[in-house]
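Q: For a teaching handout, I want to show students what a protein-ligand complex looks like in token form. Below are the inputs, and the small molecule is 2-oxoglutaric acid. Please produce the holo structure.
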Amino acid sequence: MDQASYELTAEAVVNTEAYPIIDTGSAAFTALTEQLREELDAKQYVVLPDFIRPAARAEAVRQIKDVLHLANHNCSDRNCYLQRAPDPALPNDHPRNVFMSASTRMLAADLLPASSPLKTLYYWDKMKAMVARIVGVDRLYDNEDPLQPVNALCYKDGDRSAWHFDSTNAFTMTLMLQAPVEGGRFEMIPNIRSDDDQNCERVKTAVLGDRTGAVEVGREEGALCIFRGCNSLHQVSPVKGERMRIMGVFVYENEPGVIGDPEVNATVYGRSTANTA
Ligand SMILES: O=C(O)CCC(=O)C(=O)O
Ligand SMILES: [Fe+2]
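A: Here is the structure, written as tokens, with 2-oxoglutaric acid included.
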């Protein structure tokens, strides 16, 4: 399957000239991560353009296309809380009962080769140190689920993700591997709700089409994005054209030993255990 794959070192994957993360004790590392942390706190997202090198990006895309036929096609109606069933006790226009269609193709970690530049990046201790500093925690741990830690999320012509909140993680990290010719715009309404206030009235108008406060997060190929999606509604507009939108998605944890919930895995990947074929 990956006979032509070659393994790139972490320094050959990450653009370490633009992002000086090898020496985590250096002043350059501190300056970079402090600036990005402030930006994330202010905007709820931060974009790191040209984060991976072109050859690493091309190799990741090539490997993903090799196994794309194994991707789980998620095509469903769901509300912004990622639920699929209505709550009959609530009014029809409550955001809990507003369903939107989404269609994406998900490749789990076990379908990506060990040589994947996405895995090299994810498991690099310098990477974890950088991200921890940006999101303001002492350290981050690998997710130890066979499916979850590193994924490729693909959007073909017409695919989209509807307005939603991310449910589990305090932050989400994505890497634009291939941008579509048209559409596939990542849009966010930062802090539309908070931990203390669900703000259902405003969330309702948003899911019904009121885009007040929405920002478009620019995503060039090679750009890494860290965002706080738990209280910031976000979506990906429909992709148009033959060039797929391909996103690397990474899940770090605040404690060691985290594995996925089998039910969640069944929904996201179409199976709950590793592919042993
Ligand atoms: O594809 C994207 O840009 C965003 C995907 C997303 O919403 C997520 O990973 O939580
Ligand atoms: Fe999301």
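A: Two things your students might notice: Helices lie at 10-13, 27-43, 54-67, 117-123, 125-135, 200-207, 262-269. The chain has a mean pLDDT of 94.
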